[in-house]
Amino acid sequence: xxxxxxxxxPDSEVRQExxxxxxxxxxxxxxxxxxxxxxxxxxARDLGMSPANIYRFFESKNEILQALCSRMLGTGHExxxxxxxxxxxxxxxxxxxxxxEHRLTVETMMDAQKVHEMVVVxxxxxxxxxxxxxxxxxxxxxxxxEDGIAAGEFPQQDARVAARCFGASIALLSHPQLVxxxxxxxxxxxxxxxxxxxxxxLKA
Length: 204
Fold this sequence. Notes:
With 204 residues, the protein is mainly alpha-helical. It has helices spanning 10-33, 40-47, 51-54, 61-84, 90-109, 113-125, 128-150, 159-169, 171-174, 176-182, 191-203. Helices cover 74% and strands 0% of the residues. Helix 7 packs across helix 8 (159-169). The N and C termini lie far apart (57 Å).
């Protein structure tokens, strides 16, 4: 097989493997010591390489974190796509989407304070990776709402606007900082209450 003609490159494969190793090491160290206390030199030492070698792949520690957050957020996007493809009603798919988003935020991003620190830094830096993630999730919600409109579950409406509003209405369940502040507080709406409210809005 002519691997070169199919876009295969040994050099690119080696690069991808090095990037993966750097991200794996960075995630492990960020989780253990925290983002602020981990340096590029620490990551290099963990991998048995020089800091200069790390800089061949990433310009800074911030860029490493950006790539790491992109990888973490990619998991949520893949799950959202799987939910959107389920042979269920649009309402049920939206409910499962909200439940999954909330669970991922709690388990993955809120499980340890040092993981939460990584996410907070990413959000405060306002990196493009966060905006791209929101746009991709909005695309998924929009597709489900369009299915619901076509099936008569929801009235005719601008599905894009509805998707953005739906996403904003459940921010309390999926935004790491909001979840950290509001989790288990009695004077906050419960996940079930917020989901019911958002679904009713789509049906109005």
